[in-house]
């Protein structure tokens, strides 16, 4: 019989590519993690890890980790279903959200949630979509708030997960106030192809996708920001380091020296979703936070439509 803690040890070593990092993540010693993986390999009668460097899964190891991830998702789903039968009045709700949703969406969502479940403790983690979906499948969180740019590759269907659409969010162009196009309400990306760009590799759209989108060569990064904080990106724009794409949720506090413009002709959007385990009977707290997020999404969509109508009237 396979032992779950050994499977989890293998999964964490593979994910972090380090025995020491996995030990820290699991609150174990490095030797304990190494022993668990070695015991699992002995039990299976085959090598599960290529110890490198770098550390990597062998094909049998990859298969076993995939099945372990699915099993953890089903166990977490069972836990959620039992919580639904019991009725969750206390306990903890674990949410992961990308950076701009953490600051621009979740505070209002949590206020709405606490009106229904004041005794439930909230644990909010900042996490980009792909990592959040993986954490959800492992049972480490209960809800993931994710985004997907309409020009980016799909994250793909994920076993045992349910995705609820919340709203579309416009992506804006951030320009230095002295930029030649700073006075324009709408700006074509083609007109910015030769500009210097600031690329947020953990949150933004890769510049090669912009080139594909506009069928225009020349997009290049002047500054690369290895992070997911668009506040820093806006500060870089204000310093004159370049131009950047910034989603609406991240554009609430625009620093001096920065102006925002919409993208012409058709705009650019990203879709926001709430993702949960696909259980037949979701726990009350999970169902409540998803409902609150959906209501906020409806309000966001109405404000967006109203702003678009106002912009059309000004253009006319």
What is this structure's SSE topology?
Blueprint: H1 4-16, H2 19-26, H3 30-44, E1 49-50, E2 56-57, H4 59-86, E3 92-97, H5 99-104, H6 106-114, E4 121-126, H7 129-137, E5 143-149, E6 161-176, E7 186-188, E8 196-200, H8 207-214, E9 220-225, H9 230-238, E10 244-247, E11 258-264, E12 269-277, H10 284-315
Parallel strand pairs: 3-4, 3-5, 7-11, 8-9
Antiparallel strand pairs: 1-2, 5-12, 6-10, 6-11, 6-12
Helix pairs in contact: 1-2, 1-3, 1-4, 2-3, 6-10
Brief overview, please?
With 316 residues, the chain is an alpha/beta fold.
Describe what you observe in this structure.
Helix 8 links the parallel strand 8 and strand 9. By secondary structure, this protein is of the alpha/beta class. The chain starts with a helix and ends with a helix. The protein is built from ten helices and twelve strands.
